[in-house]
């Protein structure tokens, strides 16, 4: 429920606005959902799960999610390079929100 004090505040100052800034866009929630489901995922696996995403777009979204501390990027010093992505504790705290979106979608499609 939206707090009545929000009516007196700018939208940009709300928690809702902050949350949207972290997960907005076509793919960020999809990436978070994949990491929620599969726990640890490599770049190419994410690209296979999200068939419509380009290399550049996936890379940019992952960098943004990492910058916002929602995902963790672990790089292994080997050849060929191996990089894995997983949710951080902050990212895991969004699982309940993503679950609720899934439930709502199932009930209202």
Short description:
With 109 residues, the chain is an alpha+beta fold. It has helices at residues 15-23, 28-38, 43-49, 55-67, 89-92, 95-108, and strands at residues 40-42, 71-76, 82-87. The protein has a 3-stranded antiparallel sheet with strand order 1-3-2.
Give structural notes.
It is a single chain. With 109 residues, the protein is α+β, with helices and mostly antiparallel strands. It is 53% helix and 14% strand. It has 6 helices and 3 strands. The chain has helices spanning 15-23, 28-38, 43-49, 55-67, 89-92, 95-108, and strands at residues 40-42, 71-76, 82-87. It has a 3-stranded antiparallel β-sheet. The longest helix is centred in the C-terminal third of the chain and has 14 residues, at 95-108. The mean pLDDT is 88.
Please estimate the helix content: 40-55%
Strand residue content: 5-15%
Mean pLDDT: 88
- State the strand order across the main sheet: 1-3-2
List descriptors.
109 residues; alpha+beta; 3-stranded antiparallel β-sheet; 14% strand; globular
């Amino acid at each position: 429920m939206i707090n009545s004090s929000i009516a007196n505040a700018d939208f940009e100052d709300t928690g809702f606005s902050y949350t949207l800034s972290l997960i907005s866009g076509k793919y960020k929630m999809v990436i978070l959902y994949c990491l929620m489901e599969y726990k640890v995922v490599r770049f190419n696996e994410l690209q296979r799960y999200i068939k419509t995403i380009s290399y550049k777009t996936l890379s940019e979204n992952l960098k943004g999610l990492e910058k916002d501390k929602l995902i963790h990027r672990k790089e292994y010093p080997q050849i060929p390079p191996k990089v894995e992505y997983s949710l951080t504790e902050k990212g895991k705290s969004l699982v309940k929100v993503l679950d609720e979106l899934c439930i709502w979608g199932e009930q209202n499609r």
